[in-house]
Structures are given as structure tokens and as C-alpha cells.
Amino acid sequence: MHINQLSVSNYNNISRCNNTEYHSNFNSKSLNKDVFIKQNTSPVNSSVISFAQKIQNSILPFKGASSYPIVFSPLAQAVPEEFKITPEQAYELIDRAQEKAVENKGNNLVEFSEAYNGVSILTTSSDKPYTTGNFEITKDFTHCGERNALAYVISNYKNEPGIDIDKLPPYGIKAFAVAKEDLVRDNGSVISPCSWCHTWLYKIAERDPKAKYIQLVTPIIDPQTKQISIHVKTLKDYLPQIDNIVPSYTKNGINKLVDSGKIVYSDSADKLGEKKLSKEQIRKLLIAARGAYLSGEERNLATMSDKNAGAAVMVENSDKIFTGNRLDATSPRFFIPADLNALIKAREAGYKAEAIALFSKNEYCLPNIDTFNWYDADHVTNCDSFQIVRVEKDKNGIDTIKVYALDDFMLYRYKRGKLNSK
Predict the structure, then answer these.
(1) d(CA 240, CA 42)
(2) Which of 3.40.140.10, 3.40.1190.10, 3.40.50.720, 1.10.12.10 is the CATH number of 3-238?
(3) Which residue of 11, 52, 239, 420 sits 20 to 30 Å from the alpha carbon of 178, by its own alpha carbon?
(4) In sequence order, which residues have a C-beta less than 8 Å from that of residue 263 and are 6 or more positions away?
(5) Which of 356, 359, 345, 274 is nearest to 312 (CA)?
(6) Using CA atoms, how far apart are residues 97 and 103, in angstroms rounded to an integer?
(7) DSSP letter at 246?
(8) What would the pLDDT profile of 143-188 be if each residue is shown by its tens digit?
(9) Closest Cα partner for 342 from 367, 314, 363, 322?
């Protein structure tokens, strides 16, 4: 179906992309498909050819972002007006990000991993992207480009003249792009923010629910065809639970809740087949997590924050359950999350985690955003089948057990080497 059925009201700036041919499976009644915008094969204007092309020959020469198809996810199509970006802006963000990655490589700013990434970020106060990259001073002291860019914008956006803070997107952030010096990973994996950067993004979301509309622009290459496309997705595409940051708690007994049948599996968890957690496994995990929470509360283990939390980990090839508490004896800023505590115990005992349950009255049990690096490590968890159990209230305020898969929290991060462009 030709995209001429997509009205300007649905994506009001789409017509600004010159000399384009549009293709999509777009349904005008519901935004349920990615929108593809394919450039014509006419020569690219030399003024927009990436700086990277001029100074290096990569395995897949970059022609300037506007040479490649651009894909807007359904959520990116539906963002509020103040968040909308044009195809030209998305292309420019990628070009500037790649230029910065190449510059970083030339300046030898990434000394150990040789992962040269550039980031460009677009704010509401300027049409000119701010660019930065990742830095590695030592093996133990690294800083991602995403966090560098976010820190700069958060520190400076309020100082721009004529800014109406009440009308801004979160911290003035509209969209950002990430690209490698040779544009993409040739194995087809998505260039996604790392676990620490996820933490920052979730922290922003805690303070402003509009954060889910911030858009991330990334290049993706199909590992079979070697065809490149530029994808525009929202933070909610990448972090599906970004607007569901809630404690995991119930006043009722766990046995009563389990026996009542109030167990809901996410679509991703439901597809795990034989690996899906059973009713009794869920019961065992939640009882252990609640026990850890009550123990921590009794012993006042979260001394500084008073945010006691408990977690319980089920491991592979064993009936053992490892529990952990939130610990913050010196400062609420420096603490060990309950889920990390439990995962460490399981790992130290030589086990790989299969599932975790979380329980707390006043601590956000996401799972804890500071623990994403651990959930993301395939030597710590079975990423493809790892499940998270927590208690939430449904739309009617009734306590319900929810079972999630890792996809529900980090859709792309741990899928290294896999093309996932849905």
C-alpha cells in the first residue's frame, strides 16, 4: 500500500523530505505498523555527505544518512507535537553522530574497547544538534556518549533564553542518535543504550512521564542482505516498562493471591513455553522475596533510605532459592539493590539465574534500574528465558501477580548479534 494514505495530520512534517518515495503497510485507523520512507536513488547532495566518508573506507561505506530508508515505529508516529522530528532531522542526527565517532577515533579517546560511538542530541531550544562521544580513560573508568549528551542538556537547557520550562519535553530532550564510526555493527545487532544509560533514562522517566516520547535514532543493518536502514523509535519502544515504575507489594498473603488465580503473564513470558514459570514456582519465589523484605524491615537494613526491599532468585538445575535485601547503611545514594544482592549470591554459589521475584512497599521494583548490567550478562542470567515476578495493582486496584520476560524491560539491549527491528 502506498503511503499516500498517510495524512499529513498523522505525521505533519513528512512531506518536507524532498525527492522521496514512500512505502508502508500503514493502517490509517490504527498506528500498528512501522512507516518506511525510502529515498530515491538520485545522487546525494555533496553538502550532506557524511564527514566519515571523506576520511575512511569502511566495510560498508556510509553515503550520508539520507541515502538510506528511514523507519518510524508506530509509537514514534504517535508522539505529541512537541516531540515530533522530521526525516531530515533524523538523518542529520545520524550524520552528526557518525562524524563524532570518527573524530573520537582520530583523537584516540577510546583506548581500550575500540568501540567508537558518537551521539547527537536534539533539544527543543535549538535546531542544531549537540554532539559528543564515548570516552575511556582507563578500563575501569568509561563514560558513554549517551550519558555525556544527557548530562550536558540537563545541565544547560534551562539557561537558554526565552525557554518556557513548563512546556518543554523532559529536560529539553527531544531526540538523540547513536552511531558507530563505520555507522553500524556488521552483525546486525541494534546499537542500543547500555544498561547504565538505561538507568539514566529511567531516572528521567521517574521525574517526568513524558520521557517515554523521547526518540532514539539508530542505524540497523540486515546481516543477510547488508542493507542499512535508519530507525526512529521512542524510549518506550526500547524500555517498554518506562511508564510502569511501581513497587511490588501486597498486604494479602502470597498463598491467597496465588490460589486466587490472579497471575498474568506478559506476551513475551507467555511465549516461553515449557520454560514459563509454573504456579508453584511463582509461589515459592514470591514467598521468599516477601520473607526477605520483612527480614530487612525488621533489621532496618535500609537504614538511610527506609526503602526496604526483598528479592528471591531461582537458579537453573537446582531447587535452591537465593534471597537478597536492599542495603544502604551509609547513604541512600550508595546502596546495594535487593535484586543485585540476590543475583550476586547465586553467582558466587556457581549458579545461573532463571527467574527473580521482587517485593517492596516503597521501593520501585522495576527490576531495579541500577541492576540492568547484571540482567544483561549472559553468564549471570539465561537472558532469552529469564523472568521477573512482581505484584501490581490492575486497573481496578486489585492485587495481581505479573510475570515478565526480559524483553518487557530491555527489548534490544541483550540481543547481541540479532536483528530486531520490530
Answers:
(1) 38
(2) 3.40.140.10
(3) 11
(4) 279, 282, 400, 401, 403
(5) 356
(6) 10
(7) -
(8) 788 888 888 887 776 655 555 555 555 667 889 988 877 666 555 4
(9) 322
